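Let us practice reading a record.
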Amino acid sequence: MLELKHVKKSYDNVTILEDINLQIEDGEIVSILGPSDCGKTTLLNLVLGLTPADSGEIIFDGKDITNVPMEERGFNIVFQDYALFPNLNVYKNITYGLKNKPDISTKEEVDEFIDLLGLREHLDKKIEQLSGGQKQRVALARTMVMKPKILLLDEPLSALDGVIKESIKEKIKEIARDFHLTTIIVTHDPEEALTLSDKVLIVNKGCISQYGAPQEIITRPQNNFVKEFILNQLEIKKNNIFALFQQNMTTSMQAV
């Protein structure tokens, strides 16, 4: 479990996050949703360890990691721009992190991630030869071979459209389910958050407006901001979202 207790963060005397309290269970997909400059990326960076909290506690599996350096937390992030190496082919990008930590994943495990993400036919290609969806899958594979304790994704679908976007959403859900991997996603897109996540954290002006399951967010918004930010934007697409919920529930029941 990941817990944040009374976490605060300011820059130049401007409060970015105020008294954040949050619990994320093992294996959950949680989206951090909100308008621009609401503090959602700062919250992701605090969990990653890229930036320190001013006060409060960050606890993972019962251990206080508030002051643990980023490289010792064992979390990994997939950035919005993928951050791939253009001078390396796909396979070398995927295995780059293993150069310094070769024992984390075996060759068989690397092959498993490659096949899971459908990258076998692209391994010898340069990054410039790939589509946006293919680049995203390479970035996911590169992260997964390092076996992160928590997977962090910064706007993972913002540059993708249509079928490719839905395909990557399914891959993210498949990875989280198959590897019981806690996944935290920053997004500005309500539909993306509600159809991808187990829970949605809605942030506004540095504070938590609501945290709950997608169905709860839609049917029982806790305040006017949530109602306007979520429901007004999704009114046209609501039927499609409820259909996805029903499909997900049916799939879960069949799996049981």
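A brief commentary: The chain has two domains: 2-74+150-213, 81-148.
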